[in-house]
Amino acid sequence: AGAGAHIEVLLDEPVATVAPEIFGHFIEHLGGVIYDGVWVGENSKIANTDGIRTALIDRLKAIHAPVIRWPGGCFADSYDWRDGVGPRSKRPKRTDFWVDEEHAAKLPNDSPVKFEPNQFGTDDFARLCRLSGAQPYIAANLRSLPPYAFDQWVEYCNSPAGSTAYADMRAQAGTSAPYNVQYWGIGNESWGCGGQFTPEAYASEYRRFQAWVPHYGLDLKYVASGPNGDDVDWTTQFFGNIFGSRKIDPPFGWSLHYYTDLPEALDFTAEEVYPAYAKADRMEKIILDHWTAMGVYDHEHRVKLVVDEYGPWYRMDTELDPSHIFGQQITIRDAVMTALTLDTFVRHAEKVSMAACAQLVNCINSLFLAHEDHFIETPNFEVFRMYASHQGGRSVRTEFAAPAIDFSYTDNKQGPFGAGTTPGVTKGPLWGLNGSASVKDKQLTLTVTNPHLTEARETEIRLQGGSAVSAEATVLAADDIHAHNTFEQPRAVQTRTATAAVSGQSVRFTFPPSSVTRLAVTLS
Ligand code: AHR
Q: Whose CA is nearest to atom 3 of ligand 1?
């Protein structure tokens, strides 16, 4: 083991309740996410529940998936929800937002995603959510449909049984009770694919879209389209407008997207690991920067952050399947990045009220890989399974002290967003251990990542304001940082359990190299 480390858990310094929704998910009509990933069709030989992959539903239940965002992403702003309801055989095929000429040329002729078949629509999404126990979060089209189409979508989803023509249509599709969709995104990336708006122009569109939407007795929670990464000007301009002299009710959430853009999902060297972690770790600064900018106008911080797209994203042409656009392999390195991001959300529980990992299956930071009758979990799934015990707990302050990692690296490889990655992190130091803690009843959940490639960290954890009765560890680690699951070896990466030594206020545990650990500590 390398040099020792120390963690203080300040049980008497609560931050806020950890919204279960920060462990949310995202499915977009993109490559293999919906078709092949989620939807296999009612007549498929693959085990399905009304056309939805049953294995996926079961695994979503296992991680207590709290919320699912749909239908995009960029796809949302070119989607007409009316194409995806009514008899399946009558639904139109449409040009797929994601299949431009460059993509189309790479797809096999019979690829199911060359055109959007609209076989999976609002009723199917609502069913997926109901079956898996998640709340629906729908992103409305602000770029290419008028606000009236948004009102009608809300009406289709939420008007009471027997009340409107849309309620009758919903009943014909099999569900007379309203879906009661509360979370609505007002556009997506409105600074980019969602309309290339200026912040001022987006603010006035937002005003139009949120005004007098039918509520049907629900507290609708709007998520406004926030910044690209650290674009604080976008946030400042929007908040200045919404909270200005002609102020309106603020949105529930301010969406924030930040991707860790990297060259290679699998074919990376040891030198590329720490810079990747440091890049993923920028999330914390981005959250703090926007929170500060929001507070200039929103003094009481009524609006919370909704980080509804995040994850490592690799260069094109490294996909596992040509039809699964952006569907790369997921290694232990990705699991560490996912864990450090989720820890950031838990530490900032008073700021982040919802998040969605991009994306659930066959795309970017997947929890699952699926193709026809193959369906496997990635190491990210294990992270979500471990971190589920934070849901609804009270985040408490932590202090980590471990030898920092120094590195120096020149990042000049091709990433996913055009030529070269966005400026890489070329120098350390990177913290030696990090994580988060939350308490529910007498149960403390402490999650910790050890980014070091070779050194384990023997650690003393001190509980300020409480003492421990017992502590069980669940550890995700592998000897090789490239470790991942495949259809042939679906359980190559697995968690193991261990018992941590406990004595009054002290818990001792050794965190292995390149690991994610959850300690479940029972308090006296
Ligand atoms: O998740 C893939 C894409 O990334 C989404 O469609 C878009 O919102 C973002 O640019």
A: 73
